[in-house]
Amino acid sequence: MNLHGDWTDDDLINMYYLANYRSDLRCGGSFIAPNGEVAECDPVGDNPCCSSHNWCGNTAAHCDCVGCTDYRVTCQKFRSDLRCGGDYLAANGEVAQCNPDGEYPCCSPWNWCGITADHCDCADCADYRSSASEYRDDYRCGENYLAPNGKPAKCDPNGPYPCCSQWNWCGNTADHCECDKCVDFRNTCETFRSDYRCGKGYKAPNGETAKCDAFGIYPCCSPSNWCGITAAHCDCFFCSDYRIY
């Protein structure tokens, strides 16, 4: 509330949308957001970074110091210094991978991206190149059409038909890319989170409200904001099923 006892816009947002950041710009540590978790900073606001003193701001002391956290939206899954795995985080805040389309697509047990057998073929190596295609030659896509990798087929984001329509065809028209059930695979930012949270109060890497992976093992969002596959996730009144049939 403001000094006159009126509800502010921030108050209303926090009440109804369970924001993961606070209107007083405090963050981290023991400062809890309305959603019950440790407070972050608004990634699309004027103060997107949390300082080591637990204040949101936009200076180097908030964004670039040791102990700072920058919540601005980024989709990069790998690092320019070729470090990967372990304690090496990418710009998206998750454990760094190696660029599957780059010169060094594999992560060694010593946390370096490379292309040798010591990076790609050992017991603890991680090869980020796809060994089986995610796409079908007949341009079908979605839940009931499996790709060679055994998962629901996607559309090639770098090909002429990058979007999956609600009728399970890859194409490039508005009916493939812009409808409510369409999936545009050209988007480099994920629309879902690796922790399986979804819905209001949970932002995806693309900065929007998180969905569930329509092509993953947990494609539905429950009213309690968890992705899953049970009737309590997919078939209830407030459930959201993101699969394409």
UniProtKB/TrEMBL annotation:
Sample GO molecular function, one term: chitin binding
Entries under SUPFAM superfamilies matching the protein: Plant lectins/antimicrobial peptides
Disulfide bond is among the record's keywords: yes
The keyword Disulfide bond is assigned to this record: yes
InterPro entries in UniProt: Chitin-bd_1, Endochitinase-like_sf
Chain segments annotated as coiled-coil in the UniProt record: none
Residue ranges constituting the Chitin-binding type-1 domain according to the UniProt record: 138-191
Disulfide bonds: C163-C177
Keywords associated with the record: Chitin-binding, Disulfide bond
Protein name, per record: Lectin-B
